C-alpha cells in the first residue's frame, strides 16, 4: 500500500483576509477566531470529493461536515490531518480563540481514533498548513474503486470586531486540490433565533434563505472562492445601546427591518411583480442580503443573480487630480481593475494608471482617455465596460 498525506483544509486564506480587514480599522480590539473547515489533500491525484455536506450552527459555533470520496487509483492509506491550533504572529488573539475544540472523526459511521500532534510552523512559508502549531490526525484506508464517507464534528470560535460584527463562513476553495471537480456541495448555516436582517454581508452567490437557515449549493465546480457570512445581532437586539456606543440612526435600523417584513408580506400575497421590483431596487442600492432574501421568496428562475458594472465615475478634484471609480452591482466581485490609457502622437497605446475599482490619478489636460473597468465575478467570468473621457484644458 502507498502512504500519502492529506490535510484537512487550513483556514489561513480567509482568516487572513478577515484579519486584514478588521485590523486596519479596529487594530486595538479585534479578536481573531476560527472558521469551519473542509478537507484537502497534498498531491492526491486519485481521490475525488464527490459530495460535501456541511452544517454550521451560528448560534452554538459548531460544525458537522460529511465528505464522500471515491478512489479511482490503487489501494492506499491516507493520513488526514485537521488543523487544531492556528499560530498568530501578531499577538492580538487569545490562544483559546485560535483553537478547534471537541474534534471527532468518523468513517462509515464509526468513530475512529484521532491523535493530536505538534507542528513547527514556518513563518515565511506561503503554504496554509505551515501556519498551524497543532494538528488532529487520523488514517483512512481506501481500496481501488471504493467510496467512503468521512465525517468530522467540532466547535470553533468565530472572528469578531469592536462594533459587534461577527465573521463566519466556510472555506471551500481548498476542495479544488482533490481530483477533478467537487461533485456537489451543500453548506447550511443554521440561524437559530437570528433574524435574516442581522446578516450584513454574504459572499459569493447561490445563497437561499430557507426557513431559519441560510443554504448555499453548487455542483460540478472547482472553487476559487470561500463562503463568507457576516452578521451583527447587537445592532438590532440592543439598538439603543449599540447606537449610544457606536453612533448611527435608529431610522436606518427600522428601515432595514421594515424592508424584510414587507418582503414577507408580499410573498404571502404572491405579489411577484412587486417582489421583482424590490429585488432590482435592492441590487441598485447595494443591499445584497435583502436582494438574496427577496429572491428566496420568488419562484426559481424569475430573477438571475449576477455581477454587473454600473456607472464609471470621473470627477476632477480641487487639487487638479481626478477621482476615478467603477460602480459594481449585484454579487460582490472576486477582483476588479480599472485601466486608464491614451494614444500618444506616434499611435502607441500608453497605460497611464491601473488600480482597483476606486483610485486617484493625474490626467493631462486636453488628452482623450479611455477608462476600462474589468470585473471577475465569483464564477471566474470577466465582465468589461469602458468609456471615453476628454480631460478639459487647464
UniProtKB/TrEMBL annotation:
It comes from the Bacteria. The keyword Signal applies. Keywords: Signal. Residues 1-27 form the signal peptide. This is Uncharacterized protein. It comes from Ruminiclostridium papyrosolvens DSM 2782.
